[in-house]
Write a structure and sequence with these properties.
Helix content is 38%, strand content 17%. The protein is of the alpha+beta class. Among the domains are: 3-47, SH3 type barrels, CATH 2.30.30; 51-121, Arc Repressor Mutant, subunit A (Orthogonal Bundle), CATH 1.10.10. The longest helix has 16 residues, at 106-121.
């Protein structure tokens, strides 16, 4: 599983794996204890694939930071997130020498280290880039699947259908009323 399905939920400890969507939000499974929780649409949720770390020149995606930590630690867990602020900053400077010290706080570094260790414990070590829609489409176009022209043609809305949506009367609804 890639980082596109891993979530951080504000006010909840640890990370969560996206399970399924519901009418009012979605279900997520905790990577800490395996419990499934219902997450409402109003809760503040962040996908790990969308988080970045500020550097002096650009924003580096979290997946790249995780890759660098993994390379340094040979795919094993790293230091504890409970070490001192100075140790965390020194370790992170070894990983990301150009990180912006004014915008990346010790609490942010603590989260990154904690999340990395949690992902490694749960066997989620795929920090590669997710496939884009263009790559998926290119792969689909290379397949030998044959689609009939009738099935491939887009469905256009008929005037009757658009009138029915607006509350207008069509032949079929008029016939039912009489």
């Amino acid at each position: 599983m890639s980082l596109e399905k891993v979530l951080s939920i504000a006010g909840k400890p640890g990370l969560y794996k996206l399970k399924t969507q519901t009418r009012v939000g979605f279900l997520a499974e905790s990577l800490l204890d395996g419990k499934t929780i219902n997450v409402g649409a109003r809760q503040n949720v962040s996908l790990l694939s969308e988080i970045a770390i500020y550097t002096l020149t650009e924003e580096v995606p979290l997946r790249e930071v995780f890759k660098k930590i993994s390379e340094k630690e040979d795919g094993r867990e790293t230091i504890s997130h409970k070490v001192t602020k100075e140790e965390l900053e020194e370790y992170f400077f070894g990983i990301m020498p150009g990180y912006d010290e004014d915008r990346v706080y010790a609490s942010d570094i603590k989260k990154v280290v904690q999340w990395y260790n949690l992902l490694i414990k749960n066997g989620l070590t795929d920090f590669s880039e997710a496939k884009t829609d263009e790559e998926v489409e290119a792969k689909a176009s290379k397949s030998t699947k044959v689609v009939s022209p009738k099935a491939a043609a887009p469905k256009s809305a008929s005037p009757k259908a658009s009138n029915a949506k607006k509350g207008g009367v069509t032949k079929s609804t008029a016939a039912r009323k009489t």
